[in-house]
Design a protein that fits this description.
This protein is of the alpha+beta class and 810 residues long. 20% of the residues lie in helices and 34% in strands. The strands form 12 sheets. The chain has a 6-stranded antiparallel β-sheet with strand order 3-2-5-11-8-9, with helices on one face. A 6-stranded parallel β-sheet has the order 28-27-26-25-24-31. The structure holds beta-D-mannopyranose.
Length: 810
Amino acid sequence: MTTIDLSGSWQLASADGTHRTEMPIPGDVHAALKVAKIIPDPYFGRNENDVQWVANTDWVVERQFTLDDPAGSWYLDITYLDTVATVFVNDIPVLQADNCFRRYRPDVSKALKSGENTIRILFRSSIAEAAERQARQPFYIPYSTTNSPIPNGNMLRKPQCHFGWDWNIALAPLGLYGEIALKKLETARIEHVVTSQRHQAGEVDLIVTVTLFAEGQGVLPVFFSFGDERVRLDCGVRAGETVISHVFHVENPRLWWPSGSGEQVLYELKVGTPTESVTRGIGLRTVELLTDPDEAGSRFAFRINGREIFCRGANWIPADALFSLSSPEKTEDLLRSAVDANMNMIRVWGGGFYEQDWFYDLCDQLGLMVWQDFQFACNLYPSTPDFLENVAAEVDYQARRLISHPSIVLWCGDNELVGALTWFPESRENRDRYLVSYDRLNRVIEQALDKAAPDAIWWPSSPASGYLDYGDAWHADGSGDMHYWSVWHENKPFDNYRSVKPRFCSEFGFQSYTSLPVIETYAAPKDMNIASPVMEHHQKNAGGNERIAATMFRNFRFPTDFANFVYLSQVQQGLAIKTAVDFWRSLKPHTMGALYWQLNDTWPVASWSSLDYGGSWKVLHYMARRFFQPVAIAAIPSGDGREIRFSLVNDTTGDVTITLDLSLLTLKGERRPLRSVAAVCTPDAAVTALSLPTTDIPDGMILAWNFTASNGMHGDGHHVPGNYKALELEPAGLELIVSPGGDGGFDLDIAARGLALFVLVESITPGRYSDNGFDLASGESRSIRFTPAAPTDATPQFRIYDLYSCQAAG
Ligand code: BMA
């Protein structure tokens, strides 16, 4: 195909000409201004306040390109244009865009000339445009002011978290994050390649449907290849769209499985014309969402290739608040961290993006199932015909673009729009109006999805108790998916997680501070206090710091200093989420999924994430690897506090036998063997390995255990009867010996002379530890490996934390 790639360096200017610099495209305006030193780093200190003018301004980007022969039919191919923008070619307007989630392919033939051409994009301020659109609504459409300090984001089809969120910086960024190219239409172009699968015993039909777009009549060969098979179809086209399809028959298919359940086999599908080709990695698999009624209500379980799979994972938010600061490598690192922590699902949450193709390719390769929200979150939305038409086009494009990815197992209408009906005075006073308006939007999404991808599994909203159910899925646990926020947002104790039995908990979270090395990137030494204005600025959930602190004082003694406050907040976060996951996994198959809020951060901030901005693991992420292990042991206290139930969960396909060794730990760190038991768990089940009366744990001691399973998995943990702050802990006597290992890594040997709980090693040098956040008894040691993110000659400096030293008296 004759293509002129227009990515690269463009000239950026404010519409009034005051500011001028270069801007790479794909890229965003804020990052370009930062590089040019026109604005300070928005992530540092409280600079967010000083850069607000950027989003209140209209911006222009422009570049030149040369075209020798403009004859024929030419179009621009544009994706991720953010958002309200007019594109001019040689001063002739060729596109008026207003949806970041659509692909635009305007015909520009008449605007081109031979020789030098100029393309210009005028970005309208989202803030100004959104205010005008709100004023034009037939009635006011409320948006979440607690999440979004920048108003009226609900008017625009762009990531909703761009207007601020309870973890995001509010910048209302603008730019172009995808492709921009000039392409010549020769006979026909490929508009969409959509696949569907029909599985029968031992065979699969893969139906490939190709939509071609032509300006006029013609004939062109279309090549299909799948595995070893190649086919050529000579295809007649007419003006507009022509649809052709071909069916590949696969005998003895090798199936695609989620991570931990089998291989991620991907067959290569190619569809080509003489001028272009489209490649897709096809995973052959079946997906069902089971919602059968039962005694508790109705199930919510995924069945992949006939096997019910417990979904272990977290919620994904955009990789960065500013596109230019993200990269495929950084995102891959985050997704790999998810899999490395034994996750098999992420939820692409509805306040961000439909991610780029390579993102889902990675999920396919890694075996990370994707719960894909349509991009609507926590607001109410217009239901005017123009808005709905825009949404229908968006859904059509996104569904056709993404449906072939085996990783995507669910398409969900939105995030929390049903709950949002109760958040605003307008919708409380006139629920009928706003509910009908909601249903109009939701139905357009459902119908457009069904038309584009009839096999897609649809779920109306997250959370939802069921189809056409507009009840309170934050508290009702009998049916559907649940967002359980009572511990964080309603200030309940961690035990409260055991008061509900969700069928599938798609959100629950607890905040911590981002790790000290990350705080040091945005705060000066004088700001290292959780009540400093800078630290408060990097906390976007009103009352968040108070919640962290208040919870800490319920559970722990006051930390010695700021660094230990940060550390202890992460231990606390890990314990909260572990309490929930341990219990809900033990309820399998009643509960069939636990996706905590949230995997990653968009900038350096206190949040619910388990990965720091930059990708380092917080304590929670190390804990998640243990509590999400396919074979895991959890100690679950009974409601009356009389016994500890050891739950054994097995998410694998084989029987496992485990040996569980219980011991008592004195506060001096002496380990006294208590009991050993063997237990068996059948595939895909949860059983009770042992129940221990709490009277077996003498005062002043804690219960510890470790286990090994017949499949090689192993783990350990402890249980404190009562409260950590009541423990009269004694010095842990930790010693750390660092030696350079092979492969650029470092071996860390950690030994304890007393009881060391939640031992954490940290360094200013970014990197990954083979283990962290573990316990040691007196005389015990553990060797771990530190792998720096980037090669380093110098031995990094390490700091070591443990529970005793973080809260010592004095
Ligand atoms: C949820 C999410 C987000 C939010 C989070 C924490 O319910 O859907 O809107 O960031 O809670 O409050």
